[in-house]
C-alpha cells in the first residue's frame, strides 16, 4: 500500500513538474481546462495536455504566435489569448483548430495588422477588440472573413488609418461609409495609368527626336550635294537614291 502511494505521489509530482510554473489542469462544467492565466509566459507552452477543451493563456507576455502553435490540441473548444503582447501571428498559427474551435479571444493585445489567412476556414467566434488597429483594406478583408464575437465589434477602433479623419472611430462605423479596398484599387489604377502615360510620353519623345534628327541629317546632306559641282552632284544623288532603294 505504501509502495502504491509512493508511485501515485511520484506520478502526480512528475505531471505537475511537466507544466510551466503557474499553469494547472482542472475540470470546469465537465470540460478539461488548462489555466495559465497571469503566469508570466513569454511563449505558448509546449506541454499542454492534448485532451484540453478550454485553454486560458490570458494576462501573460506572449509577443507572437508561431506556426502550428496549437496543432496538438484536437479537442480544443475555447482559446483565451487576451491581455498579452501579441503583435504578430504567423500564417498557420491556428492550423488544426478550424473544425472544432468555438471561441477565440485575441482582445487587448498589440495587433496593428493581420492577414485574413490567419483565420482560414475558422468557424470560431473571434474577439479582436482593444488592439491598436491600422484601419485599411487589410483590416476590412479580415473583418469580413471572421465571425466576430457578440458585443466585440464596437471595440475594434482605428488607432491609425490611411485617412486621418477615421482615427478614434469604430471600424465598423467607418466602413459603413468608406470602402478601403475600393479606394486602394482606384489609387493603384491611377498609379498604373500615370506609369503607362509616362512610358508613352517617353516613346513619343524618342520618336520625335529620332525624326527630327533624321530630318536634320537629310537637310545637311542636301546642302552638301548642292555645294558639289553638277556632275559630281548627279553622281552623288544617284548613289544616294540607289542606297535608299
Automatic annotation (TrEMBL):
<dbReference type="InterPro" id="IPR003591">
    <property type="entry name" value="Leu-rich_rpt_typical-subtyp"/>
</dbReference>
<dbReference type="GO" id="GO:0005886">
    <property type="term" value="C:plasma membrane"/>
</dbReference>
<dbReference type="InterPro" id="IPR001611">
    <property type="entry name" value="Leu-rich_rpt"/>
</dbReference>
<keyword id="KW-0472">Membrane</keyword>
<dbReference type="Pfam" id="PF13855">
    <property type="entry name" value="LRR_8"/>
</dbReference>
<feature type="transmembrane region" description="Helical">
    <location>
        <begin position="190"/>
        <end position="211"/>
    </location>
</feature>
<feature type="signal peptide">
    <location>
        <begin position="1"/>
        <end position="18"/>
    </location>
</feature>
<protein>
    <submittedName>
        <fullName>LRC3B protein</fullName>
    </submittedName>
</protein>
<keyword id="KW-1133">Transmembrane helix</keyword>
<keyword id="KW-0732">Signal</keyword>
<keyword id="KW-0812">Transmembrane</keyword>
<dbReference type="InterPro" id="IPR032675">
    <property type="entry name" value="LRR_dom_sf"/>
</dbReference>
<dbReference type="Pfam" id="PF00560">
    <property type="entry name" value="LRR_1"/>
</dbReference>
<keyword id="KW-0433">Leucine-rich repeat</keyword>
<keyword id="KW-0677">Repeat</keyword>
<dbReference type="InterPro" id="IPR050541">
    <property type="entry name" value="LRR_TM_domain-containing"/>
</dbReference>
<comment type="similarity">
    <text>Belongs to the LRRC3 family.</text>
</comment>
